């Protein structure tokens, strides 16, 4: 594994140089033809950037307009879509199986209890069906909406290759394969590699998943609350968001109340003192995951790890583990690399086990909640 680090770093530097060409106009939501092709090609050769040029040329405009309307009503929905997309892709591949709403589906699983954003996708799908009936998959809509949501969070723009089909099945047991937040770097790396992702993707996307409120990856976008309680959401790499004190009790109070040992990985003494004082009396208090720039999509999160200010053990392990620490250092030394690599890693994420082509067992759902045969 150690021998692979130089090649990974070279890849990261190469990506930084290549992606710099995309970069400055992403906030304007370019159309199909205004950006060059990204250097990272889709895994599936049947996906293409011009898949809907003739089939549904107004697709991205419809998605963007609908998403803007939703953000105007609820600015927190953007981060929710990132998590929804991650859940979909990391279970059985990017196939919109998370959107199927029936007894025993992934959507009904315990791991999916705090997911939201389903109505956003339903609304977009309804508008798309008016213009391009039975043409655009729910999977492609979720993928593109996630990209637009990232930009609205202040993140980078990237082009989305299209042509995915929707799954006809969804099983809540499959959701058990999602990371729980307690895994070691080795276990997480094995999981990411099994999905066709690599060590760089692990570091860059490390904060995209938050399975449920009972583990350290449960984090909350600032001010995001519903009548039922907190909605747990994580944009990439814990650069934005916060977690509850209850999720970090073991980390910040090791060595107290009769237990032994110091927090492992270690925490900066002053930061630890702050956390202990803030969380001593109220387990439902919230703490910023990025203690320095908690509301900005940037790479400061990684600089915090260098200062031993990783709030979660799993975060700090990215800096202490010999396999991931060189990548963290590269992101610290070249802050713009995080934005560029985040875009590349999101393209790779969106190509996990996609259904495409005439021979795949998928379909184009006309309602994202149900397979076509049950509508």
TrEMBL record:
Subcellular location: Secreted
EC number(s) per entry: 1.11.1.7
Keyword Disulfide bond applies: yes
Top-level division of the source organism's lineage: Eukaryota
InterPro entries membership: Haem_peroxidase, Haem_peroxidase_sf, Peroxidase_pln, Peroxidases_AS, Secretory_peroxidase
Signal peptide region: 1-20
Top-level class of the enzyme under EC nomenclature: oxidoreductase
Family: Belongs to the peroxidase family. Classical plant (class III) peroxidase subfamily.
Protein name (Swiss-Prot/TrEMBL): Peroxidase
Source organism: Hibiscus sabdariffa
Lineage start: Eukaryota, Viridiplantae, Streptophyta, Embryophyta, Tracheophyta
């Amino acid at each position: 594994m150690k021998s692979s680090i130089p090649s990974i770093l070279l890849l990261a530097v190469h990506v930084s140089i290549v992606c710099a060409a995309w970069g400055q106009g992403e906030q304007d939501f370019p159309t199909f033809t205004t950006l060059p092709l990204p250097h990272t090609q889709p895994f599936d050769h049947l996906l293409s950037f011009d898949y809907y040029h003739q089939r549904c040329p107004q697709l991205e405009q419809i998605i963007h307009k609908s998403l803007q309307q939703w953000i105007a009503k609820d600015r927190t929905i953007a981060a929710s879509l990132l998590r929804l997309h991650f859940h979909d892709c990391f279970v059985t591949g990017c196939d919109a199986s998370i959107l199927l709403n029936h007894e025993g589906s992934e959507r009904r699983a315990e791991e999916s209890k705090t997911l939201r954003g389903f109505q956003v996708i339903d609304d977009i799908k309804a508008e798309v069906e008016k213009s391009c009936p039975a043409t655009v998959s729910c999977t492609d809509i979720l993928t593109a909406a996630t990209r637009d949501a990232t930009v609205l969070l202040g993140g980078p723009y990237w082009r989305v290759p299209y042509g995915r089909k929707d799954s006809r099945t969804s099983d809540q047991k499959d959701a058990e394969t999602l990371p729980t937040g307690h895994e070691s770097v080795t276990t997480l790396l094995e999981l990411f590699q099994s999905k066709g992702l690599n060590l760089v993707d692990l570091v860059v996307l490390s904060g995209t998943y938050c399975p449920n409120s009972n583990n350290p990856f449960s984090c909350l976008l600032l001010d995001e609350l519903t009548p039922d309680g907190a909605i747990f959401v994580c944009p990439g790499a814990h650069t934005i968001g916060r977690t509850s004190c209850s999720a970090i009790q073991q980390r910040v109070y090791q060595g107290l109340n009769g237990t032994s040992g110091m927090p492992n990985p270690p925490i900066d003494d002053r930061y630890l003192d702050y956390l202990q004082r803030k969380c001593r009396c109220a387990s439902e208090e919230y703490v910023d995951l990025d203690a320095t720039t908690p509301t900005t999509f940037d790479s400061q999160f990684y600089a915090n790890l260098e200062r031993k200010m990783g709030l979660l053990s799993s975060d700090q392990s990215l800096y202490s583990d010999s396999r991931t620490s060189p990548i963290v250092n590269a992101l610290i030394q070249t802050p713009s690399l995080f934005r560029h690599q985040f875009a590349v890693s999101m393209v790779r994420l969106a190509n996990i086990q996609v259904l495409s082509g005439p021979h795949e067992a998928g379909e184009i759902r006309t309602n994202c909640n149900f397979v076509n045969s049950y509508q």
